[in-house]
Amino acid sequence: MILLSNIEKVYRTSSIQTLALRNVNLAVAKGEFLSIMGPSGCGKSTLLNIMGLLDAPSGGTIKLDGQTVSNLPDQKLAKIRNEKLGFIFQSYHLITDLNVIDNVELPLIYRNVSASERKKRAMEALEKVGLSARTKHYPNQLSGGQRQRVAIARAIVGRPEVILADEPTGNLDSVMGDEVMNILLQLNQQDGTTIVMVTHDEAQALRTQRLLRFFDGQPVNTESYATQLS
């Protein structure tokens, strides 16, 4: 589903050059749940942004579902992001002036989906995350765990093939973190969604099928597990 070949990422200023990723080669299989762990500043989020076509590598190639996407123009990259990828962030990134269902519908507006179909799909997504009774609430009326579940609903409303999650349980307590993780596991195991998750939580990482440890811009080892639903 995702193939990275010889990926490098260099950040340059007038006086300094920082190598964030160096010669990264990584394959993520269709339907896999991969977690990525490593110390702060090691390049995990940079790697996730490159996988999600939010940032361009300085070198190397990216293939998504067999298609080389490294050098596509911005308009085509935006279309691929909207149709194939779903994003979950640590900080939720919900729009405070929109209620829950309007937040979830938002990605479908850019596909020119009809209002009735948007509403239907948004309700289906909210039912999957257990928030169908909160459609008219606003983000500031929700707990952190509920906000993250809204963010997951928004990520899956377009039925993406891949979900990229950056510290999805990082702002949550252990109980809420387990709830969010259970939803991600269900999306992976029941719907076959490919998921790549950056995390600092080893207990959550060990629940995924494969754990990639990252250090100084490079993978250092990978570990495989049999994932079980709680």
Structure summarized in a few sentences:
This protein is α/β, with parallel strands linked by helices.
Percent of residues in β-strands? 25-35%
Largest sheet: 6 strands, mixed
Mean pLDDT: 91
Distance between the termini: 26 Å
Q: So how many helices?
A: 7
Provide the succession of SSEs: EEEHEEHEHHHEHEHEE
**Shape, per Cα inertia axes:** globular
Q: CATH fold name, please?
A: Rossmann fold
Indicate the low-confidence ranges by residue numbers: none
Q: Total domains, how many?
A: 1
The portion of residues assigned to helices is: 25-40%
CATH class: Alpha Beta
The CATH architecture category equals 3-Layer(aba) Sandwich
CA radius of gyration is: 17 Å
Q: Total strand count, please?
A: 10
Description:
The chain is of the alpha/beta class and about 230 residues long. The chain has one domain (about 1-225): Rossmann fold (3-Layer(aba) Sandwich), CATH 3.40.50.300. The protein contains seven helices and ten strands. The chain has helices at about 45-50, 75-85, 100-110, 115-130, 145-155, 175-190, 200-205; strands at about 1-10, 15-30, 35, 60-65, 65-70, 85-90, 160-165, 195-200, 210-215, 220-225. The strands form two sheets. It has a six-stranded mixed beta sheet. A hairpin with a 2-residue loop joins strand 4 and strand 5. The protein is globular.
Task: Walk me through the topology.
Elements: E1 2-12, E2 17-28, E3 33-37, H1 44-51, E4 59-64, E5 67-68, H2 74-84, E6 85-89, H3 100-109, H4 115-128, H5 144-156, E7 162-166, H6 174-191, E8 194-198, H7 202-205, E9 210-215, E10 218-224
Parallel strand pairs: 3-8, 3-9, 6-7, 7-8
Antiparallel strand pairs: 1-2, 1-4, 4-5, 9-10
Helix pairs in contact: 3-4, 3-5, 4-5, 5-6
